[in-house]
Fold:
Amino acid sequence: MLPTPLALIAEITHRCPLHCVYCSNPLEMQKAASELPTEDWVRVFREAGKLGVLHLHLTGGEPLARTDLTELIVGARTAGLYVNLITSGIGLSEQRLAALVQAGLEHLQLSFQDSREAEANEIAGTRSHPHKLQLARLIRQFKIAFTINVVVHRQNLDHLADIIAMAEELGPDRLEIANVQYYGWALSNRNLLLPTQQQVEQSQRTLAAAEERLRGRMRIDYVAPDYYARYPKACMGGWGRRLLLLDPAGQALPCHAAGVIPGMKFDNVRQHSLDWIWRESAAFQRFRGEDWMPEPCRSCDRRTEDFGGCRCQAFLLTGDAAATDPVCTLAPTHRVVEQALAQISSDGLPSPVLPSAERWVYRPNPG
Amino acid sequence: MAASGSFYSGGRLGVMPVPEKNSKPRLAPGCRWAEANGAERMLMFPEGALRLQGTGRDILERCDGQRTLQQIVEELQAQYKTGDVGRIEQEVSNFLESLRQKRIVDF
Structure:
């Protein structure tokens, strides 16, 4: 039986004042002119509520770049959805935040790039760190759930204790420490982002101690670096199984990166209902269930836990989207991951000086 | 948005310190009830939801920031007509502490 999607991820715009070197947006971004208008988004939220979706994640780009964000939140709450906003905080004044909360915003996730200003600004490709610190203190004064998100990688993993201390001082309910996942922009910058084994092991000790110390005050959620894992992540909780993503133009994707897979055709909410897309869209059916699985997944006990891992990663690293995720130690192509890690360890420890900005591939603003 | 993938990750529960008798448990910010659907009622929170019925629902619906833990236990004792107050208190405390660690309940 076809499961009900639990969450809708709405990339309401790809415009963003930040240029993060690991942005999850596709390399080919949607321009402002192609964005869905307010009324289409509100209709889609209504359809999502009827379909049984529980959570709406408003993201981007920078969702605050949409001047109709308040109306979108009202529309989502009216549809019965739980509303989460994932933001860099750039463009958020006290007055605007009050309006968003008034409209029904329930959870806000604020991204930080590092605990150190120069390093944070370098990753974001813009000066944003001081504003975020001010904003975090303001957010805490509102009665909404507050999460601080920090993406970690080779350049900042050694500051993890400082990052946790920074979060502790800002007082969110939850801290999400997520290792970079290598698609799109992050894959272009992989040689500067991939951490060493030593860093990963040290960071996990730091995290375990912090979790113990902060239990009950601040919850810490951790996304492991899958290149160092034995088995792949259950990407998106399984293809077309729990999550549905809409890009700014209304194309429905099973995940952030699915556009990289050749031959994918995405249906659009301008032409189809969300219910039809979930049931019928070829993109959602392509890797749904187990029929597509090769060995060793097909006969593996873990196939109902990790669903064969990530299809986009399989394509990007092996050229075959239907291959076992190569991060799996059982995958016949696992050596491509071992080679990437061997490269990092032979390059030596992270350099004591920051890599120069010219070495990064920054995500541009699509305009 | 950062390239990460943690949706609906399970929480871990550790050692259980107990809430005080006079603490007043309440839903944490960003946690709320969805509409009831028969015996079942859903509690919504960041990144997840709990379907609750029976005792779990009876406990959480009383977590309004007004009632103390002791009052909640007394009400449940009356409702379930059972004499073992110590056991009820222990179970309610463990349940609330596990939800506090998930940032669903504050006290």
